[in-house]
Amino acid sequence: MDYQKILEDIYKEILPFACEGAQADYIPALAQINPDQFGICLKLVSGEEYSHMQADTRFSIQSIAKVFALAMGLALKGESLWDKVGKEPSGTAFNSLVQLEFEKGKPRINAGAIVVADILLSELEDAEGEFLSFVRALSGSDDIGYNMSVALSEREKGYLNAAIGNLLKYHGTINNDIERVLMFYFKMCSVEMSCRELSLAFLAFANHRRKFDYAGISLTASQVKRINAIMQTCGFYDEAGEFAYFVGLPGKSGVGGGIVAIHPLQYV
Ligand code: GLN
């Protein structure tokens, strides 16, 4: 299979649509990002790697970070994680409040990630440090970090996530101080990675035959497969059905413009 040519053809095919998107300007720092950047990287479980354009340019991973947080939450809490976080797709916008209110504080997507952030803060002495160590170990890049100007910019305008945090606190779903939980959540979203780093990090989820043990976070093959199931059903918010219909792979998108998809036991 000529994967290199496929990647180059994909680029040509999507170029005419490049002008259709827009940055997520509700996070002011993201509105400053050059929208014409494009990178793609394909990594096979056999180790081969193919890339095109700016595969080494880092960008804000935003909600892609939720997969890493979920993996940590599942490793720390096992199945009891699901007592606090729903695993059904929301079918609504990632930051929808309606559903959270209707379901009396048991969250699905954004709200779910905020609850996972709260769980990590309760379980770990240095959750922010351990989150970074985990992402660094998965991707083999020691200098991956939080972008504080993106995190603070989101916090400044993060009215909807603050509302979600308050509703969760009202329902007793989060234990820690709302401000602390939200800041950790915003920091996770602000992590910057390149396509190449993301593809290496997600290879661990694609290749569930390989032992999953990174910076002290270990998952069984079955847990890795469960995470893939959640990516398949919930990874794309209100577009999850659309993505499953047209692409059919588990994955995760983020408002930083990144999309990751994996083909279990084949590639990411
Ligand atoms: N940090 C963003 C938010 O909560 C992440 C959203 C996303 O990537 N879909 O609004």
Question: Could you please describe the fold and organization of this structure?
Answer:
The structure is a single chain. The protein has 268 residues and is mainly α. Helices cover 49% and strands 10% of the residues. The protein contains twelve helices and eight strands. The protein has helices at 3-14, 28-31, 65-77, 98-102, 109-123, 127-139, 148-157, 159-170, 178-190, 195-206, 221-234, 240-246; strands at residues 39-43, 49-53, 59-60, 192-193, 212-214, 217-219, 251-253, 259-261. The strands form four sheets. A two-stranded antiparallel ribbon has the order 1-2. The protein has a two-stranded antiparallel ribbon with strand order 3-4. A two-stranded antiparallel sheet has the order 5-6. Strand 7 and strand 8 form a beta hairpin. Helix 3 packs across helix 5 (109-123) and helix 5 (109-123) packs across helix 9. The longest helix is centred in the middle third of the chain and has 15 residues, at 109-123. Glutamine is lined by residues 62-63, 94-95, 110, 154, 161, 189, 254-255. Residues 62-63, 94-95, 110, 154, 161, 189, 254-255 line the site of glutamine.
Task: Give the helix/strand layout.
Elements: H1 3-14, H2 28-31, E1 39-43, E2 49-53, E3 59-60, H3 65-77, H4 98-102, H5 109-123, H6 127-139, H7 148-157, H8 159-170, H9 178-190, E4 192-193, H10 195-206, E5 212-214, E6 217-219, H11 221-234, H12 240-246, E7 251-253, E8 259-261
Antiparallel strand pairs: 1-2, 3-4, 5-6, 7-8
Helix pairs in contact: 3-5, 3-11, 5-8, 5-9, 6-10, 7-9, 8-9
This protein binds glutamine (GLN).
Glutamine binds at residues 62-63, 94-95, 110, 154, 161, 189, 254-255.
